[in-house]
Design brief:
The chain is of the alpha/beta class. The protein has helices at 31-40, 53-61, 81-94, 114-124, 184-188, 214-231, and strands at 3-8, 23-24, 27-28, 45-49, 101-105, 131-137, 146-148, 154-156, 173-175, 179-183, 198-202.
């Protein structure tokens, strides 16, 4: 079975400017998923879908391909991932390239591990699912969540669980935001990843970290440098 990786990386990031090519512990952020995808041995091609010349240049430097530039229509703040990947798959098919599976890997995923890509590939190859993606358990049960009412009094979102022990509440997971492994056909048909025929692999709590601002960026840099030092 053939597979390719597509890394969606537009130039107009807002919360962290130029984050896809910003240096992260000595490397451009996008270099991490590119090098990981290439070393995994899973993919016949590793492609970056971008609208940005600098991102394209950096991507090629680290071994990815940029066979086309993404249109402005698919590069705004409201563009959804499935449309970007479907566009890339369709363009490749128009060039005579056909693949069984396509893995969308997000560009700022420095904690992504090669074994997780392989684990997801094994699951998607079973043929049962349209998509497989990594998920992580909520740190505390969402059923015990509450807010402050107008009077300041606590209001539980699920009052029926207010007195339930946390260990008695089933685990709940959320999307880890690292990658989505899917059948080419599912991407082209723009099937929903999170609301369709999908399953997930479970990550450990230390395998992912949301990078929403510069404080998160500095924190992840410290983690990466610590891992590098421990490996020496």
């Amino acid at each position: 079975m053939s597979a390719i990786a597509v890394i969606p990386a537009r130039g107009g990031s807002k919360r962290i400017l130029r984050k896809n090519v910003k240096l992260l512990a000595g490397l451009p952020a996008i270099a991490y998923p590119i090098e990981l995808a290439l070393s995994s041995g899973i993919f016949e091609r590793v492609i970056v879908s971008t609208d940005d010349a600098e991102i394209a240049e950096v991507s090629v430097k680290y071994g990815a391909e940029v066979p086309f530039f993404r249109s402005a229509v698919l590069s705004n703040d409201f563009t959804i991932t499935v449309d970007v990947i479907a566009d890339a798959v369709q363009r490749l098919q128009d060039q005579g390239e056909n693949f069984d599976y396509v893995c969308c890997i997000y560009p700022v995923t420095p904690l992504l591990r090669e074994n997780r890509l392989k684990e997801a590939f094994d699951v998607i190859e079973s043929g049962q699912w349209d998509y497989v993606f990594p998920a992580i358990e909520f740190l505390t049960p969402i059923e015990r969540g509450f807010k402050k009412g107008e009077s300041g009094l606590i209001e539980f979102s699920h009052p029926e669980f207010a007195n339930t022990r946390t260990q008695d509440i089933p685990k709940t997971f959320h999307d880890a935001g690292q990658f989505y492994f899917g059948k080419s056909k599912a991407w082209l048909e723009r099937k929903s990843v999170l609301n369709g025929n999908s399953t997930f692999i479970e990550l450990a709590k230390n395998e992912t970290l949301d990078i929403d601002d510069l404080a998160d960026w500095e924190h992840i840099e410290k983690l990466i440098n610590a891992m590098k030092n421990s490996a020496q």
